[in-house]
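User: My instructor asked us to take a sequence, write out its structure as tokens, and then describe one feature of it. I'm not sure where to start. Here is the sequence I was given:
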Amino acid sequence: MTSASTSVLTSAHTDPSPRPKQPTLVVLQLTGGNDPVNTLIPYTDPLYYDNRPKVHVPEADVLKIDGQYGFHPSMAAIKPFWDDGKLAIINGIGYENPNYSHFRSMDIWYTAQPEVIVTDGWLGQAVRALDPMAENVLTAVNFGRGLPRALSLAGVPVASVAQLDSYGLLTSLAGVDERNSALEAFSCMYDDGFNDDKIVKPLKHAHPEDPMSTVMRYMGQTGLDAQKGAEILGTTLRSYASTVQYPTTELGSYLKGIAQVKLAGFGTRVFYTAHGSFDTHASQLVTHKLLWTEISEAVAAFFADLREHDASDDVIMLIWSEFGRRVKDNGAGTDHGAGGMAMVLGDPVLGGLYGQYPSLKERDLTVGNLQYNNDFRSTYSTILERWLGVEAQPIVNGHFEQFAFV
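Assistant: Let's start with the prediction itself. The structure tokens for your sequence are:
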């Protein structure tokens, strides 16, 4: 496949006709900083081996995609996406003045704000645009522990699931009567301010300027959303059946859960999960191989499941990491770097190489790091406008060139 250049900014599509299927985004975050050079390997460049005397993949093991580049050998399950033209690779992705702190760089990607520190997540804002009245508590679902900052936004409900088969409220209470009684009390604590007699409860009399009132209102809405989401997701497993065997890994479990919720038809538009850690300062050859084996096998199973159910034509997956790694190895691994890579894959994706693969020449490096050549907000803008149908400018805080992968 040949490289593809960025396209000019395009407007969000506005199709007034109802869609039997809605474009859905799955985000897979590679926490810790994935090494792009050992993911998409420039196997014909002697500088690769010069810079990586200890931490390199032998040319004979590379899964070649053309005369210059190839995948890490553990990515065999993902390579068919490339072969079928369903995998876009964004090379040299990043932002100006890269930050090498995991926490700050992740925040930058979470909020699409490299210059200032804010709390609103880019996907939280996208969900608000997709469901401005917050009518569906399952418009966004995270599989994992906690709530990703990317989905964080006041007033935007997000269900966060560790294990789908045990998801719910007060599930530690074994007795049915005991649990029902506790759930009823929970509902009364976090209702809309009225009891069955339509008498205003004390929460409605709270003063708006009282900080405790704000906290209670937030807790109340969060509690109600959690209860409603748990009740809906509890029905997911009843209708799910598949012949696809997922790997018995945590990521395999998460992606299977995402498939189950997607196939249940709850109207979820954004899914999120994460895998790692890719912070491979040491033991990189072993760790990187294991992580990409787990990712490749789980992702392949996920899309096979969707295809089995005729549900793959409205799903794309974004795979990203907060930064890359340094060009030179440290003898056992690689340290924090810049000029990373991202992937977008799925049946609707126009595959190919996007952006430019960063030069490994010493004169082209910045403090030993790859130079970025496209802002990550170009990828965000492409997904927001050309896939989700959401105006990108107020979310990414500017106009950025878009790619043509969707």
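For the description part of your assignment, you could build on this observation: The longest helix spans residues 284-308. Try explaining in your own words what that tells you about the chain.
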